[in-house]
Amino acid sequence: MLMCALPFYLDAFWLRIGLFAMAAAIGAVGLSLLSGTAGQLSLGHAFFLAVGAYGYAWLAGEPGPGLPPLLALVLAVLLAGVAGGLFSPVAGRVRGIYLGVATLALVFLGHHVLLTADSVTGGFNGRSVAPLTVGGFSFGDDTDLTVLGVQFGTEERLWYLGLLLFAVTCLTARGMLRGRPGRALVALRDSETAASVMGVNVARYRSAAFVVSSMYAGLAGALLALGFRRIVPDYFGLALSVDYLAMIVIGGLGSVAGAVAGAAFVTALPLLMTRYAEHLPLVTAPGTAEGGVGPTEAARYLYGAAIVVVLLYAPDGLHGLTRRVRARLKRGRPRTPDPDTTSTTATLPPASAARPKEHTP
């Protein structure tokens, strides 16, 4: 309920941060299923984000088929899943650092295609993104909408769209982890030999995890495209894949809540440092000629240091740290006696008084 009420009180800047954080959380949950639960290293998450973003922009825009935006959104997610399915035979046979290098090639290949396929991607300058419309309701600024005296623009409308997609994906991921697929992926991560002995089809589950993760990334990319309103190829580079790895490591591998927390931290930090750069030491505002570190670079240094701290002192991330703190507070909380029990025991006579006296003959 609190998340639903925030657009009535926050301005566009904070809503934009929340929207980007929710989009990043969707992609981070997918990567956590792949790397944290299934144990497959992937450095190509930015490629599938680009497939979802550009897939929606091309399918719903001009030049392009000009499909209904909702249909274009669904097809963009499926297109990302198809891209993951085409790569899944590699994911089913390669593991560890070799899979990471193979997925890294996807990022460079995808960036080259984005720069050269001008008719689809717009080339270096990118392309604009058509607003999403559902049943005549537009998530853009083309129509006036006032709710309880608050003007609802693009940020307010996209906030609820992002909140809905975020809730659905998180619930789906939780259900998957608690069901048979999640147990199979955990067994696969711990030991492929033991998993195959228990009847787990190793290649099938590894491929399926890659496809599901790609679809999550495609949905996140489409939501990011709607938030940016214009997308460019340089955004979907290697740095974006590293950012998503940082999200799941800081939040906690294999945890949905941890992926969400890591996504919020990594996404919000550079935006906040950009806004308050003038008040931060050693940080210069964008576009200034003064010496110092830009807010984006400073944010990368900070969450790089956070990764080191997490790996050294909290290998299970923010989620595991929060769980341990809660358990320690619960153990240290003094127990209050039950008043019903206290009153009952206080009225009982002592054992010596209740025992009858023995008479000696």
Task: Describe what this molecule looks like in 3D.
By secondary structure, the chain is mainly α. A two-stranded antiparallel ribbon has the order 1-6. Strands 2-3 form a two-stranded antiparallel ribbon. Strands 4-5 form a two-stranded antiparallel ribbon. Residues 340-349 and 351-361 have low confidence and may be disordered. It has 16 helices and 6 strands.
Structural class: mainly alpha
Q: How large, in whole angstroms, is the Cα Rg?
A: 26 Å
Would you tell me the overall average pLDDT? Answer: 83
Q: Strand order across the biggest sheet?
A: 1-6
The shape is globular
According to DSSP, the number of beta strands is: 6
Largest sheet properties: 2 strands, antiparallel
Strand content: under 5%
As a percent range, the share of helical residues equals 55-70%
Q: Note the run of SSEs as H and E.
A: HHHHHHEEEEEHHHHEHHHHHH
**Number of helical regions:** 16
> Could you list the spans in which at least 5 consecutive residues all have pLDDT below 50?
340-349, 351-361
N/C terminus separation = 79 Å
Question: How do the helices and strands line up, and which of them pair or pack?
Answer:
Elements: H1 2-5, H2 12-37, H3 45-60, H4 69-93, H5 97-116, H6 118-121, E1 127-128, E2 133-134, E3 137-138, E4 146-147, E5 150-151, H7 154-178, H8 180-190, H9 192-197, H10 202-228, E6 230-231, H11 238-251, H12 256-275, H13 295-313, H14 317-332, H15 339-347, H16 351-354
Antiparallel strand pairs: 1-6, 2-3, 4-5
Helix pairs in contact: 2-7, 2-10, 2-11, 2-12, 3-4, 3-5, 3-10, 4-10, 7-8, 7-10, 8-10, 11-12, 11-14, 12-13, 12-14
